[in-house]
Specification:
alpha/beta; Quinone Oxidoreductase, Chain A, domain 1; 2 domains; 7-stranded mixed β-sheet; 6-stranded parallel β-sheet; 9 helices; 16 strands
Amino acid sequence: MTAAFKAIVAEEAKKPAVLKELTPDDLPEGDVLVDVRYSTLNYKDGLAVAAKSPICKSFPMVCGIDLAGVVAESDNPDFPPGTEVIVNGFGLSEKYWGGYSQRQRLRSEWLLKRPEGFTLKETMAIGTAGYTAMLCVMALERHDVTPDKGPVVVTGAGGGVGSVATAVLAKLGYEVIAVTGRAEIHDYLKGLGAASVMDRATLAGDPKPLGREQWAGAVDSVGSKTLANLLSQTRYGGCVAACGLAGGIDLPVTVFPFILRSVTLAGVDSVMAPMDLRRQAWDRLARDLPREKLLDIVTEEPLERVPELANDILAGRVRGRIVIRVADR
């Protein structure tokens, strides 16, 4: 099959990605060919597409760290043609061509069969952001942050990670303090289950070495001073799950929270997480993410709008999750 198809391609460093036409001969090596139906827009995608950070390590690079689609051709009997699959991370849009392409050739070890209980579109409504949020919740649970221990803070609550984390934690019985700088989404966050909303400026100042103990744990996608302030105000024995750097890569914190309050900073990586952990996260999402809340989070947009939407997510103008409709209708 030689028919052309559409893709969002970064052609060189420091130059925004553009919509192009490719053919199957352009695709990289791999043992499975997937007809991509949906992808999604994450903060990392915004950085790559808008060329605001050196996410792409070689060029040309098809952007998009997520995809969901149907196997068209396969050399792996575990993924015969017709199998619905998803991919989250594994270096897509960095070292390997990603999900913003109507066809993609991939390594079968990256593939996960569509998790039971979700449609392909719903898996991308969740995407890496939502799956990362679930990994963060699981990290808090592993460190014994239970609902009876006190409130849990979610920073960047209006974004993809924050929206899913808020909805899941609220369903599990936690008192969720949602942090945002956008007054217009307070009702949205309370609708997801947040007990209260905190202005992000409260956590943006210079952190004290040790602040007043306020919360049992946190899910943080911001980093920098925000993460430092979270740590300095976490209760004894608490845990902060860190998964993002929207506010910066620095961490101006002292050792006091760790050695005087036994606070744990749990780093959460979704890109190279082992497959068993991925399956656990998706199983938990099927059980613990309220489906009606998912509908409140999601907006669907066509592939052609990705370059524009990349700038929106970097500017903080995106609420919840954006599903990218990759296949033509």
